[in-house]
Structures are given as structure tokens and as C-alpha cells.
Design brief:
The protein is α+β, with helices and mostly antiparallel strands and 154 residues long. Among the domains are: 8-82, Immunoglobulin-like (Sandwich), CATH 2.60.40; 87-118. It is 21% helix and 27% strand. It has one helix at 89-120, and strands spanning 8-12, 26-32, 39-43, 50-54, 60-69, 73-82. The strands form two sheets. Strands 3-2-5-6 form a four-stranded antiparallel β-sheet, with no helix packed on it. A two-stranded antiparallel ribbon has the order 1-4.
């Protein structure tokens, strides 16, 4: 899709059914729809075809008119849309460079912090795993009283 500010390459071929080949010239008119200003180019034949580049300077619908005189005047019209550029190319590259610089700076900062932290913290002794603490013995529920002595009267 054509974008504003970017050149569009146009290649045209004019053939005829009878008589000698058409040698030109061709006249191209290129303008935004409804605009009084227009770009006009007169093209001479270059090999078999006619070639040129056109650069739209604003987004929106554009008209391209091709005029030539064979046995009579002929006019061909084409309408197409030109898209706006999302962001200027220089601004896009600037954002990429700023992002890359910020990522580099944060990476260096993180490495320096880790190095500084490893220098300032004393070496901690290796932790020795201790056996799990034993639970205190549970109090047995009160046992039932021993049976009473049998009566002595025997």
C-alpha cells in the first residue's frame, strides 16, 4: 500500500491493435481527490514501456490520470488510497536507540549492584541441618485407680 512521503513506481505500456506502435508521449496527472493542486509529468518512451516515480505528500484518496493521443485522445483514470506513515522514520530509530541504551544501562547497574552486594556481605557459615526437635512426652491420662483390697474377714 502506498504511504505518504514514499515514492511510487509507475510503469505503463500502451499497445494498439492496428498500425505502427505508439511512441508517445504520455501525460500523467497525479493529485489528491478534490484538490486543485496537481503534479503533471510528460513521459517519453523508455524501451518498451514508460516509467516514472510519483511521491504523494499526504494520506487519503488520490487520482492518477494518464492521457495520450493515438487516433483520438484517450484518458485512463485510477483511484487509490495513500496511507499515513505511522511515525517518522527518524523518530522510530531514535526510540529504538533509547530503548537499547536504557536496557544496557539497567543491565550494567544490576551487575554492579550484585558485585557490590557480594563484597559487603560477610561470608555466612554454611548452615548445618539440625535434627527435628522432639516433642515433649505427652502426659498420660490419669490411669484408673487400682482395685480395692478385698475385705479381710475370711
Amino acid at each position: 500500500m502506498p504511504r505518504e512521503g514514499e515514492p511510487i513506481s509507475v510503469s505503463l505500456h500502451v499497445g494498439n491493435f492496428e498500425g505502427p506502435e505508439f511512441d508517445g508521449p504520455l501525460t500523467l496527472t497525479f493529485h489528491p481527490v478534490g484538490s486543485p493542486t496537481q503534479q503533471t509529468k510528460t513521459l517519453k518512451r523508455d524501451g518498451v514501456n514508460w516509467h516514472t516515480e510519483l511521491t504523494p505528500d499526504e494520506p487519503g484518496p488520490w487520482d492518477l490520470e494518464v492521457r495520450y493521443q493515438g487516433t483520438r485522445l484517450k484518458v485512463l483514470t485510477a483511484r487509490f488510497s495513500v496511507a499515513s506513515t505511522p511515525i517518522p522514520q527518524g523518530l522510530g530509530w531514535g526510540l529504538v536507540l533509547v530503548g537499547a541504551g536504557a536496557a544496557l544501562a539497567f543491565g550494567v547497574r544490576n551487575v554492579l549492584r550484585r558485585m557490590q552486594a557480594s563484597r559487603t556481605s560477610p561470608e555466612a557459615p554454611a548452615a548445618v541441618p539440625s535434627p527435628p526437635a522432639e516433642a515433649p512426652p505427652a502426659k498420660p491420662d490419669e490411669a484408673p485407680a487400682p482395685p480395692a483390697d478385698p475385705p479381710s474377714g475370711q
